[in-house]
């Protein structure tokens, strides 16, 4: 029995190929229909085509269908035999594109016999009753791409715009000079050498040299078309509505915008032409679900304040940053970096720097809470003080003698703060800093942020170093602005960027003791009235704290100024500013029109 069975099975396989063979029944048209449906469900165009009587044409059409549908689409097909005609079947197609996006329809197929075998007779209508030769399927997500991103007042911040992508081919690299000459007006970093460097960094035959806004492209498009090897492709992009607006706070908004329009997206399946002058044009819409209403993505940014901040930092040649936050809401109002700062990355939110004397706000708050002093308590402010062999000097070793704590704060006495810090427990500064938001890990949708780091100080020398914002203490401009906003709010704020996208934190918001808040706010106002920031006396209601912080080999310092004016809390950093004066000047250039407006 075994010797006879094996040759029979081999013969069966040779005769009936892919349609199958049974020892118990002859092949039938339904075998062909089922094999066709099964192959389509697996997205195996070659196998499906092989079951038809025109394998080449069927495989090409089925491949085109799968390519035109969403890449993650799934297909299930059921077959049924209509009436008594077993040579005809109904194919029930059920496409799924996820998220309750389903496209169902039926198509009729017939079978033809070739010897003892059965094949599905190929016709485009087997895939869809409306499909004709020269057509294929196209799935599209229908999204509200015109949905804007706005500032807090509803003014457009980012909008969908047409841009021109300017490309150059490797074959015409000798055109790089001419291309750079045309593009220099838009980006002076584009040179023949920079274009050549782009090609050196890749094996691609074509590189994108620049992307131009539509109005810029219009001024040079004719020139570009005359340069050999240059092509311009128009496409859409989400850009700032005002070309002058730039902020590291904007960069992450693209992802949130994309998420919003994806969640409300509709979809459609269309038949499009595959040949002739109308190639790619729709011929028949098979299914369509319009997108749901997508409200604008509203941010907490204020375009007016953002532009003022940008103008202020642009006046300084050294890397300069300004971050402003609303104490009442925690909303980020502005974040500006000049070109020198932006070359170092988004340092407004993720840069870590010693805060210098601006950290005396935290040290003073800890001393007030511990009962070590009050604003009127007489405190020594000698030119230098030595703690555990660590000598702390005032700037130029100025000596005020004995003065109230409020005066020592306003005049920025390092020696006074060092002596107070030495009396605090090792964890006093970290605990107080977290009340102000420094050291808290905030997850702000649309941003990557750090606030800073304030470790325990286990030795007297470390206490005094940390107490004046040196040692192991670091903050970001964002973190220091959070601290000022928390002081203005009276408790740890929760910074936000996009309305409806809540921020999370690894530490819950806690109140700052009311007497501490009141005393600090008054001492900060005194700093402006007759302390180290008197050049800003004309800014109504302003209170602040200056700071310089040595770094590297201690031959240079960063300059800081941070404070509160009305509902604007801010921190300004001039990297390598050497004194606080540049930061104070930048802050004033921002605050005067900001508060007046």
TrEMBL record:
Stretches the record annotates as Disordered: 273-297
State the GO CC annotations: plasma membrane
Q: One of this protein's GO BP terms?
A: cell wall organization
Name of the molecule in the record = Penicillin-binding protein
Enumerate the Gene3D superfamilies for this protein: DD-peptidase/beta-lactamase superfamily (3.40.710.10)
Q: Where is the Penicillin-binding protein transpeptidase domain?
A: 322-578
Coiled coil regions, renumbered to chain: none
| GO function term, MF aspect, one | peptidoglycan L,D-transpeptidase activity
Q: Which UniProt keywords apply?
A: Signal
Q: Give all residue intervals belonging to the NTF2-like N-terminal transpeptidase domain.
A: 28-133
Is Magnesium set as a keyword in this record? no
Classify the source by domain of life: Bacteria
Q: Where is the signal peptide?
A: 1-24
Q: Where is the composition biased (Polar residues)?
A: 273-288
